[in-house]
Amino acid sequence: MKQTIKALIENAALAAYEKGALPSDTFPPVTVEEPKVESQGDYATNIAMVMAKAQKMAPRKIAEAIVAEIPVEGLVERLEIAGPGFINLFLKKSTWLTAISRVEAGGEAYGASQLGAGKKVQVEFVSANPTGPLHVGHGRGAAVGDSTARILNFAGFEVDKEYYINDSGRQIRTLGLSLFLRYKALCGQTVEFPGDCYQGDYIIEMAREVQADKGESLLAMEQDEAVQICARIAADEILSGIKNDLEAFGVPFDNWFSEQSLYDEGRVMETIDELKAKGTVFEKEGALWFKATDYDDEKDRVVVRSNGQTTYFASDIAYHMNKFERGYQRLIDVWGADHHGYIPRINASIEATGHNPEDFDVILVQLVNLLRGGEPVAMSTRSGEFVTLKDVVDEVGADAARFIFLSRHYDSPLDFDLDLAKKKSNDNPVFYVQYVHARITSILEKAKTERNLTVSAVPTELLSEPEEITLMKAMLRFPDVVDTAARLLEPHRISYYLMDLASAFHSYYNKHKVLTEDTHLSAARLRLVASVRQVIKTGLALLGVSAPEKM
RNA sequence: GCGCCCGUAGCUCAGCUGGAUAGAGCGCCGGACUUCGAAUCCGUAGGUCGCAGGUUCGAAUCCUGCCGGGCGCACCA
Question: Which CATH architecture has domain A125-251+366-422?
Fold first, then answer.
């Protein structure tokens, strides 16, 4: 709707220019917004004010020239010029009524758009090292990444979701060592368990399985070989646990991409050779450095250490190059905020390898503080004291967890209170929104069984209560909200919108009965609430939250 | 020391990339179920948008400097 209004205004401005009422045809970007106060119209635009400089005219004069060109027959009831030069538009009731037919026509696609124009996007998220189970922080990243992908897909992008598995390098070796030492201990040998090994109980459990499976055969091998075997066993098992946990959380991935495969296929060395050929690396103190400072990073970065090993950064350069080579036109990485210092060097490497950093976005998700009844719950992977994502999903459910993760801008730290997440009240908005869906479903059933009424194309003119208009306006806003959420990569906008729409519905429900003695009115209201249910369902789907018919 | 993010109602947070009188939930207080689901609704109170300057028709939003909090600054991942 906002787009429609915007086009209306811009066309009017152009018409005014063509008729000579405006001296210049340079039109700055126009914003159309919905004023908070009813007296300021349904939509308002600041076009006259932002144009004042270029036109060398008083804003109110410009506004008059534009208003004269806006057709009043169509959507618009009347226009006002207010304050310093706002143009306020008041729409006809018939315009609001179109909300219902629009939702019905769109169905599950109502709110979808062609913003992305089929552009291929990859969203990479979670990508936790397979050295332990996912914790709550990963859950937030998973929710944000998954929902962002759903929103972009809905907005016309072609989206793939990918998990990058860090299955090479030192932490995997440490994992293998941890498992081997636990195993050794179980076999009755005295071992010293180093502090930098993974302490969690899950390692001991795996050691038991290894013992049951292989007996004491690993003790007979060279330790290096045994550790390698343990590393593979542990990484595979942990990864399959991660996959299960994510599935239970409603987060499927299109690709699971192995870091090790970049080495196996020689991609990392190729990348380093390419950087060499471009002269963007140099040797210093026995190591090979990437000249990140040539691309606005604050220092140069090592890609090959003096001991000959490549760094994580080296494979990351290769990985991002590979993403572009696979045809993605836009890359979105979801990272924990503690990795923010990493952005400039990835940007630098993307530029150095001949791609555009503009096509690369990072969503930095702030950390999660897990609470129980207001008290912090300690978490640390190394010490093994943490609450896993699985624990949380088991305790509060995937829907509640996801909604909480998505009810906050990813930019701000999140307090996740386990006790609060379980409350079935307004403390916990997921139920508030889902309740709308269940309530409307129940009304539709009742209408059918008791009144033999189903949703049909009856006239909607009977709908004229203020609460009804509010609902229709809210539904017309949905496509705008999706658009904004997609452009800004901000799923929380969907959550807030849904709470708004839910609130409008609950108010309406409490004040007016859908099923009245008047059959025509009832039928019209049935159409209205069925549309509301559709929008709620679609919105929840964008968050990856279910829309239950009963609660 | 340098860099990134954040300071909005008692609490938890929105504020559509500069708009008009800054919003919501929780909590407090007071109301609404013989009627489609009370996991709901209605109402009251609550603010110098961290502080100080600047930019302009107009600032919670942009710039600068402070104050306060979080997180980073490896030949770790």
Answer: 3-Layer(aba) Sandwich (3.40)
What residues does each domain of chain A span? 2-91, 125-251+366-422, 426-543
CA–CA dist A544, A250 (Å, integer): 7
Those residues whose C-beta lies under 8 Å from the C-beta of residue A230, and which sit 6 or more positions away, are A175, A176, A177, A179, A180, A183, A210, A218
pTM of the model: 0.94
Residue A393 and residue A391: Cα distance in Å, rounded?
6
In terms of phi and psi (left: phi > 0; alpha: psi -120 to 50; beta: otherwise), the region of A127 is left
Q: Which contacts qualify for A511-516: CB closer than 8 Å, 24 or more apart?
A: A511/A465, A511/A467, A512/A465, A512/A467, A512/A468, A514/A443, A514/A447, A515/A443, A515/A446, A515/A447, A515/A450, A515/A451, A515/A453
A421-472 pLDDT, tens digit per residue, is 887 776 788 999 999 999 999 999 999 999 999 999 999 999 999 999 999 9
B21 closest protein residue (CA to C1') = A37
CA of A186 to C1' of B44 (A): 67
Instruction: Look at residue A30 and tell me whether its pLDDT is greater than 90.
Output: no
Dihedral sign (CA A330, A334, A337, A342): negative
Which of A264, A266, A267, A289 minimizes the C-alpha distance to A276?
Answer: A289
At A14, list the tokens: 């152009």
- Superfamily (CATH) of domain A2-91: Arginyl tRNA synthetase N-terminal domain (3.30.1360.70)
As a whole-number percent, the residues of chain A with pLDDT over 90 amount to 73
Listed in order, strand segments (DSSP E) in A400-445 are 414-417
Q: ipTM value of the model? A: 0.95
**Chain B bases near protein Cβ (<7 Å):** 2-7, 12-27, 32, 35-42, 57-58, 70-77
Whether the predicted pLDDT of A74 surpasses 90: no
- Range scoring the smallest mean pLDDT among A41-55, A284-298, A377-391, A519-533: A377-391
CATH topology assigned to domain A426-543: Isoleucyl-tRNA Synthetase; Domain 1 (1.10.730)
The Cβ of residue A543 has, within 10 Å, a number of other Cβ atoms equal to: 26
Which nt is closest to the CA of A417, judged by C1'? Answer: B12
